[in-house]
């Protein structure tokens, strides 16, 4: 039986027009690089953003922590400016799926590679409230190790009193989301095609399911508890 569903935010439950990754690309390329948006998504999607920057720079063989930290600080300033007046909406059917899961006794968790300030800003723009629309928000700020390490999932389990990770599912739009769920030992690690990575890219991380709409989670929870792809 599934007792907790952990959802990534941007690209999975939140639609912010990829402003974070567009801003990250601008911040990196300000330093004389020419990374494409596809490269940014391929290397950075789902990761804590300093880690994402280091991964992107690694594509050019650059292992300069000082440079990465300078870009990260600039990125935070640019992101704050980009968010002013930005319209943020939920991904299709997110609230409906949250409500359906909660009605079945499944705790709903949001997790993200953003820091808490950014994540809370997104939640507020949509109008979601902790304890009403979802049960728990865990961000990169709360844990020592970030995706693909499973610390955020374990943190949410502890907070919500979910002892058995085999009663947890993870949903995300990037390979690193799927890897996070698999590393945690979740019953299901599920990819969704609404965000950063294509179906082919998601399959590289060996998800249990790939869905195109969050509504497809409901029959998985209801009638496929013992199924695999």
From TrEMBL:
GO terms of biological process kind: DNA repair
Keyword line: Hydrolase
Molecular-function annotations in GO: phosphoglycolate phosphatase activity
Record bears the keyword Hydrolase: yes
The protein's name: Phosphonatase-like hydrolase
Keyword Hydrolase: yes
InterPro entries: HAD-like_hydrolase_sf (IPR050155), HAD-like_sf (IPR036412), HAD-SF_hydro_IA (IPR006439), HAD_2 (IPR041492), HAD_sf (IPR023214), PGP-like_dom2 (IPR023198), PhnX-like (IPR022468)
GO cellular component: cytosol
Cross-referenced Gene3D superfamilies: HAD superfamily/HAD-like, Putative phosphatase, domain 2
Pfam families: HAD_2
């Amino acid at each position: 039986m599934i007792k907790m569903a952990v959802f990534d935010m941007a690209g999975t439950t939140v639609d912010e027009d990829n402003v974070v990754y567009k801003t990250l690309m601008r911040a990196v390329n300000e330093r004389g690089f020419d990374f494409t948006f596809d490269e940014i998504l391929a290397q950075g999607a789902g990761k804590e953003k300093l880690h994402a920057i280091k991964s992107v720079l690694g594509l050019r063989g650059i292992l300069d922590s000082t440079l990465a930290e300078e870009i990260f600080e600039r990125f935070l300033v640019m992101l704050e400016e980009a968010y002013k007046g930005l319209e943020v909406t939920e991904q299709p059917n997110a609230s409906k799926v949250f409500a359906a899961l909660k009605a079945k006794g499944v705790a709903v968790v949001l997790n993200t590679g953003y820091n808490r300030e950014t994540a809370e800003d997104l939640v507020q723009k949509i109008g979601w409230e902790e304890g009403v629309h979802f049960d728990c928000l865990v961000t990169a700020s709360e844990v020592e190790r970030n995706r693909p390490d499973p610390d955020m999932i374990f943190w949410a389990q502890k907070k919500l009193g979910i002892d058995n990770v085999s009663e947890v599912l993870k949903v995300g739009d990037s390979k690193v989301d799927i890897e996070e769920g698999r590393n945690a030992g979740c019953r299901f690690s599920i990819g969704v095609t609404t965000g950063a990575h294509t179906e082919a890219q998601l399959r590289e991380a060996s998800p249990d399911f790939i869905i195109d709409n969050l509504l497809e989670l409901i029959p998985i929870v209801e009638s496929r508890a013992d199924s695999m792809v």
